[in-house]
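USER:
Working in pairs, take the chain set out below, taking as long as you need, and write a paragraph about the fold.
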Amino acid sequence: MATLPRSPNSSRILPQRRPHSEFDAGINASTAWTEHLELESASSSAGGGSLSDEEPDYDEDAEDEFRPARALYAFEGKTEFRELSVDAGDEIQVIKEDLADGWSLIRNEAGEVGLLPRTYYTFTADFAETPEVALSGFLHRGGGHRRDASTKTITPRTGGSLTPKEVIPQHTGEWRAAFPSFRQSLLGGKSLNRFSTFVTSGAEEWVLKGTAADAILSEEPATTAAHDKSGSTDSNDDNDEEDEEERNRLNRLGLGEADRHFVDASLAWKAKLPPFRVLVHSPSKRASTLSGAFTVYSVTSLFHHPPNGDGEPPPSPTRITVQRRFSHFVVLHTALTRRLPGIALPPLPDKQYAGRFSEDFVEARRGDLERYIGRLVRHPLARYAEVVTFFLGCESDTEWKRLVPQHLAMPAAGPSFYAHVFHPEFNVDAEDAEAAVERFDTHTRAVGKGVQGLRSIFGKVREARVEMSKAERLLSYSLLALITSKPLAAAPVTGASEEEEDYNAKGKGLLNDQGAWCWREGCQDCLKMTKAMQKTAEAMQNVADLYDDHARRTQLATHEALKNVAHPSSLYQGVVTTHRSTLSRYSEADTHANSEMAARCETVLNTTMAEMETYHTQKTEDFSTLAKEHLDGEIEFYEQVLNRLRGARRAFDEPQYTQLGAEARQPSMYERELENPRLGAEPLLQPAPHVFDAAPMRPVSVAIQEGVGMLLGPSGRGSVFGKFW
């Protein structure tokens, strides 16, 4: 075993206990820290970043709490996503700085509230003065080019002295995002972060320093016991309300049951809730005076009851249906990635910049959202996350608008996520963990490459089915042209002269008065044969329709479902990076005999190994489901084809064949198409691109135009300092 040895007097990490850490324990475990979080949550609920249709109300008396800032770049926001447009140099107020995915909630001078990328502004209140540095030489160096003093300054007023001071920016963030517009346009809105997931998820801070959650965990039983309610029947309702409030408060602080996660001895997550199914259906177009038109989807959760055991069928599943739009899914994804930084969450479908209300796009978006939420609730941790249950169960618009800012304002879990992961001691062997991550990384890369090839081939199979539909239809037309002696425009006869083709069917005796393909009048044999062949031609038309419909509906659904198993390497890249970095820290702890760091490394490794096990389980389910659904679709398709062909074949058998001679032949509905056959099919609809596909969601020309405009034109996202030269 390569697990680090423990000294006899070192503290062992129990499955549900963490060693006490001195890192900020006195601050974070204090009442002031708790009250700060509660006040911050309450302030966010009053003016948080809700993405609902109505404008949130803000307390004007609390305006001094907002931090003044100034925009560094021009930004053109999308109103449907509650993004706020600003120009470089605009003065703004930052309501909430740290939202997910690099966004901040800000307010402009006109009082409008919206989202702005965090790297697009700098705080003006963080500029400090240095009295010991004089700028007289610098101010007079420019001579006549000296710019007049502005009535508004980015330096706070601290006194009546007119002596110029040097302005030094403090804590204004990194300048690594110099060209965010050009970069994000080319990448379809994805951001590049030079820090690894090991850092951004809080795993590194947890491994090196622990977290204040250690102290909170040690006090948690007393906190829970203090809120135990008596069993008085007179105050059950009041107690239920108080219990609900207490649970909500603990969840906001990261102390609730939804924030505790357990890994068993087999390195797999322990599921607290049974799996359930979520459907996204019934899209409808709505309109709002604030955000314009948008699409609303019905989201229905199906909770199946366990079998009774008495042989009777189980009762119907419990259904909960709510109305959600795409921006609500953005809220869910944003909040969930902040609360569960250590797991691999499915990517949210990209935004759409054109054709958002076309029927094909709405259906594709519905399918993508259903696959997203379906994979979300399949994860044993995300399934019971507070924001997920809120998203799937909140039926009141008023309650949604009230609680969304609280979820968005909740602090990122960071290292406290790992502090709430409980696992058996010495559950990971270092050598096995290192070998496992190498095999896992190699396997997921190979799976991704293979699935991409499968998606490409499957597209060609669908195209081949459409071509087969054309061939079956052409064969049907040719057969009708033969028995009716009518020329087919799409298939000229070869080897016949113009004189031979220019004839009158009835005048030459090719069809008799009963419509039979015969020169004799009253020929019953030819009448029966002609009508049976006509049924054969009509069956081929039905077969052609089946081929076309199968390619456009059934196989399209399978083609779309292949996105569920595409790009596993990209999805689990953060898990692999965190795992490898933790192994490196594990080795350092071994070298320096740091048992506490080694114990924290084991926690992170249990987390990453549990994520790998989750992928293993889901991969087995996904590919089995894909294969079964494809085979079931093919079987159903070919059974329908066989039924059509068998029906045409029975027309040649008794007694149907004799009955065909009782009446004259009626023209087929497809005879009118012989002069203009339906052989040109519409382009085959392709699945919407996966988030990790190489194809950008925005047109490349738009991205290039934005990038060039930013570099050369004044209308681009140029720096505010460039306007001052």
Observations:
- The chain is about 45% helix and 10% strand.
- The longest strand covers residues 277-288.
- The chain has a mean pLDDT of 75.
